[in-house]
Amino acid sequence: MMDRTMPRRGWRAPALVLVVGVLATAVATGQTPQSAPAPAASPAKAAKPARPAKKPAVPEFRMVLEPRAMELLKATSARLAAAKSMSFTATVGYEYPSKLGPPIVYTSRYDVTMQRPDKLRIVMPGDGPASEFYYDGKVIMAYAPAEDLVAIADAPPTIDAALKMAYTTAATYFPFTDLIVTDPYTALTDGAKLAFYIGPSGVVGGVKTDMVAWANDDVFMQIWIGADDKLPRRVRAMFRADPLQLRHELELSNWKIDPVVAPDAFASAKAQAGKRIAFASPAAPPKMALKALGAPTPSKPVPAKAQSKPQ
Question: Which ranges in the chain belong to alpha helices (H)?
Fold first, then answer.
């Protein structure tokens, strides 16, 4: 990036050369430049050195919940909660530390379709193995197409309860969970300690958005909310307990509110016919679970060797 001080330094350099040239000429000819300073005052009459000026007091930072920021969070939550059905694409980028130190980024995409109160489909291509998740109000199916493995379990009768069961039973979580539950506002603002309006943006999601910062004791987030449609377009999060301060970003696109969804969209005959495995957690959930977006964060960071992706 160009240094904004460069033009100023470039302007001063000729003046400095001119002053040095005048002084050199005066010494060579035995003359004193007209701008020579007056003789110094005698020690007895010398003025006392001025006391250094006091630095202005730094205003104390206060954690506040700005009404404008909270109203924007309430507006986007109300838009999502009112939808009887919706679909969107969530693209998630999350960082892992490399052996050299700087983090590398892995990306996952989630193609989401839901219908309240008891239908959900999530198809997940990404940098790692693809997977599919189906919930039809009666059973949950988690399917790995490459291996043709499927885990099936009886499920409770609502999306909220099914997502909770999937997490507690099989460590299955999604970084946008707080956006599809019955009460997004309560989920998004749980434990809020700080919220403020940052300003407008016209470069995220191809629409005008309003930027809001939000924080609780665990996470600091920045959220871009559509100025007109009030739909969330981007979420950026950093976790307090993470000593590496790795960043997590969620892009939300292809929004459709209240679309007509085919009845058979929330099941898969191919998944149903896969090789059965237990609906259980294969390992502890990784650190990058976004608590503010639907999954609790472990109290301690998970060591690199315990993470599922290569370093």
Answer: 6-29, 67-82, 159-170, 177-180, 184-189, 269-272
State the Cα–Cα distance between residues 262 and 264, nearest whole angstrom: 6
Residue with tokens 């997502």: 163
Q: Give 191-229 pLDDT, tens digit per residue.
A: 999 999 999 999 998 999 999 999 999 999 999 999 999
Q: Are 103 and 249 in contact (CB under 8 A)?
A: no
Domain that holds residue 78: 67-292
- Pair of tokens at residue 116: 């309240």
Residue 224 CB burial class (10 angstroms; 0-12, 13-18, ≥19):
buried
CB within 8 Å of 71: residues ≥ 6 apart: none
CATH of the domain at 172: 2.50.20.10
DSSP element (H, E) containing 76: helix 67-82
DSSP state of 258: S
Query: Residues 142, 126: contact at Cβ < 8 Å?
Result: no
**How do residues 49-68 score in pLDDT, each as one tens digit?**
677 777 777 776 678 999 99
Amino acid sitting at position 249? E
- The reply to whether 163 falls in a domain is yes
Alpha-carbon span 95 to 29, nearest angstrom: 69
In a domain, 178, yes or no: yes
50 occurs within a structural domain: no
Q: What is the pTM of this model?
A: 0.72
Q: Are 255 and 244 in contact (CB under 8 A)?
A: no
Domain assignment present for 305: no
DSSP for 30-62, please give it. Answer: T---TTPPPPPPPGGGPPPPPPPPPPPPPPPP-
Number of H helices, E strands in the chain: 6, 12
Q: How many domains does the chain have?
A: 1
Contact 295, 285 (CB under 8 A): yes
